[in-house]
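Predict the 3D structure for this chain.
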Amino acid sequence: MIFAVFLLTFCIYAITLCPSVYVEGSGELIGATQLLGTAHPTGYPLFTLVGRVVCAVLPFSSPAVEVNLFSALCGALSTASLSALLRARGLMLGSASAGGMALGLSATYWSQAVVAEVYTMFTLFGIATIAAALQAARVSSAERQHRWLLLTGYVSGIAVTSHLQAVLLLPGILLITLRAHRLRSTLLRAVALVAAGTVLGFSATLYLPVRNGLGAGFHWGPLDSGSAMWAHITGELYRGSFLFSLPWSALWLNVQRLANQITVDFTALLLPVALWGGVRVWRVDRDLAVVTSTSVVANFAVALNYDRDPNGIGVFFLLAVLCLALWFGFGIDDLCRRLRYRPALLVMPAVAALLFVANRETADRSHSLTPDQYGRAILRELPAEAVLITEGDDASYIVDYLSRVEGLRPDVDLLQRQGRGTGLVANLPSPYEMTRAARQLQTEMQLISSGRPVHYLHARAVPLQDYRFAPWGLTYQLVSQSGWPSSSPPGSPRPQIPVTRSRDPWVRKLESNYWFMVAEHAMERGETAAVVAALDSSAARAPQSHTANFNAGLKLLQINQLDRAFPYAERALQLRPMRPQGYQLVERILQRQGRAAAVRDLERQARRWGVVP
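Done. Predicted structure below.
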């Protein structure tokens, strides 16, 4: 039955697997795995190394599909492992299997299992950590217990290298170590064993500076100093996304988002069973209750202080989703026993069928062709020998993957303005005392003077005063103000809107970009009506995207369409109420409309959210 859980979830993942590269960090993880590189913080060395071995034996021609399948394999192993853990804790086979399926087919987890992402591997080692800790608290022999404690620490260290969320398991692990009465006389030794094992498991990160120093590869950035390495493995880059000084209004907003996510993950029908299972765990399995409850509390404490794109908040609750799936197994088991339900084996397929129907539309990535098409369109449209300067995550690593792994447009050079991956300043032989911004500007000026076509993925900061950005397909070409005073350069391609439409909010952001670039081309030609129509379509494709709504409001403000600009600016503000840019945009519109009272209300609203007007 446990094998059936593995087989069923793997088949479901294979059917709903993303057929190519996905958005954000997917392309970078695929590239790091295929070329044995060093991925974005925290590096994910085990995902890279094991993934490379698995991909070497897979018979597919697409590197993206191979890494996506590796993620699916880890996801299926996690569901089977969770079922095995529940079975070992005394649950009936059908109930234990249902708990595994509750994790595997929860909407957020399923969506991460069908793309190149690290979350399924993190969950697999998180389950292994919980299992080892529970066994360490159970054995009677002190010598065997010390071995299990060392193993617990080792597996937890590996889990931390898979994702920093695993750190939130450690308080519960230490608490059940404290609860083991036979260890009180050797408590310091027990804690030391867990700590030593954790350091040993975490030593997998030594791969990062070694590989990073061995030459070219798919590297996020240089790891040539102790401080750079420490910042990388501790995820310093993301600390600004977790603000432990959020006002109550922001915390309450995240509570609402969490409640919505958990309800979607487990459906309103199964969620009460999971919550009852938490009560049941506390009554019959105190060690497991301590680990899961402390992990859930720690996960909520961290994730409720998250302040980034709301579409990305779900993955930061995956540890809580794992614990809820554990509780669900106990809840459904207790329900079956109370109802004297004999054919309990039928519970697993029933739960699987319910979650499959409820969550497939949310988690299915089998039709996510837009990211691949988007990246190919960008590269295809560029002039010969062009330089493309990228920025951000949405499309940068799609293009990077297609160029460096699949070998598209070898004549085009890719550079990252933020110094990530194909960094604009990573290998520039400039004095160390120069700031990154100065080195970046120096490099851009050298590229412009070289005579090669210089294109940008985003039109954010013009490096020279007498130049401007002119839309060119899905990118912007840097052109001289005197050279093209009133229109795009001759031969500039127009964006081709894809026929397919996705329900995935991340893919919809890319679809929104197509329409935004249509608006940019229309604005270049002075066609106001076409600009308004294209921006309406852009925002409509990604209604939950702060960026899409903000950009629509800003562009409409620029062409003095104030009444049309205001709803988009207000929507952007609702989606990201902690960002000052939203207030600034709304304020500019209100001031142009002469609504002084509304401006004062806006300032009071900003103060409630902890934003300085």
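Residues 435 and 529 are 43 Å apart (CA to CA).
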